[in-house]
Amino acid sequence: MKRPFRIGTRGSALALWQANYIKDLLSDSFPALNPEIYIIKTTGDRNLESPLSEIGGKGVFVKEIEESLLSEKIDIAVHSMKDLPAILPEGLAIGAVAERQDPRDVLISKRGLKLNELPEGSGVGTGSLRRAAQLLALRPDLRVLPIRGNVDTRLKKLKEGDEYDAIILAAAGVERMGLAGDITEKIPPDVMIPAPGQGIIAIECRENDTKSAGIISKINHHETSLAAVSERAFLKKLAGDCNVPAGCHARVDRGSVSMSGILASPDGRVMVREKLSGGIDNTALLGEKLADLILDKGGREILDSLSSP
Questions:
Q1: C-alpha–C-alpha distance, residues 152 and 138, integer Å
Q2: Would residue 83 show up in a list of annotated catalytic residues for this protein?
Q3: How far apart are CA 173 and CA 103, in angstroms?
Q4: pLDDT digits (tens, 9 = 90+) for 96-126
Q5: Nearest Cα to Cα of residue 216 among 15, 23, 85
Q6: Residue 234 and residue 294: Cα distance in Å, rounded?
Q7: How far is Cα 219 from Cα 212, in angstroms, rounded to an integer?
Q8: How far is residue 287's CA from residue 244's CA, in Å, rounded to a whole number?
Q9: How far apart are CA 245 and CA 21, in angstroms?
C-alpha cells in the first residue's frame, strides 16, 4: 500500500476542519496522493486556562507540530496563520496558503447588542492583547476579561455563565464551524484591525522537501499569499507575537497592495495606526515599511514600555 501523505494538525474541531479542507483540495488536485490527517497535541491544547503571554505566546499552538515536521513524522502541517510566530524554525517554510476567508473580528453578545450598544461596565471576553487594546480604545468603559479555549468552549462560557456579556472571536473560525448565526456584529477592519494572517490557512513544509513543496504549491492562492507575506513581514519587523498588541491587514487588488497597521499599549491609551500602499513586486518590503512608519511615530516607545520590567 502506498505510504499516506501525512497532514499534521491540532485536534480541535476548527483545526480539523482546516486540515480536512486542505486534504480535500489536495485530493482534488492529486487523486492518487492518499492524504491522511495526523493529530498532534500541543502545549496550547494542554493548557487552556493560562494567558498565552504566560505560557509562551502563539508558538504554543505549533511547537510540537513543527517538531513532528522536522523529524519527518508528517509531510506538511496545517495551521491558522495567525497562530504562527513571525520567525519559523530553521528548515521550515510556509509553502502555500488557501484562499483567505473573512479576516474580520466579530462580536457575539448574549442579548444581541452591538459593540456601541453594550452598557457601561459590560464584560467582554478575549484572549488577544490586540483585541483588548483596540476594544479599550473604542470603549474604555467596558471590562475586558481574559478567556481561553476553542470556539465552542468560548461560546459555552458566554451562553451558560454569568461572567461575560460578550466575546470577540475571528469571523473565519466562527463561520468555518457553522456558527455564523451566533454572530452579533462583524467589526470592520478600519475599526478593529485584524491579526496578521487572520482568516488564512497556512501550509508549512520542510525547506528541503521539494516533493511536498511542489505538491502544495498547486493549491496555493496567489493573492492571499501576497497579503500574507506583507503582513508577516510587518509582524517580524515589530518582533511581534502574542505579547505585542499589534494588528495588520493587507488588501490585494489589481496589482496593488493596501495595508493598515496598528501598535498599541495593552490598555489602549496609546495607539499608533498607519496606512501604506504599494505594488505587488515586493510585498515583504511594504510590510517592513509600514512597521517602520509605526515605529517612527511612537511605536518604539510602546515596545520599550512593553519590555520594561
A1: 26
A2: yes
A3: 10
A4: 999 999 999 999 999 999 999 999 999 999 9
A5: 23
A6: 10
A7: 12
A8: 17
A9: 30
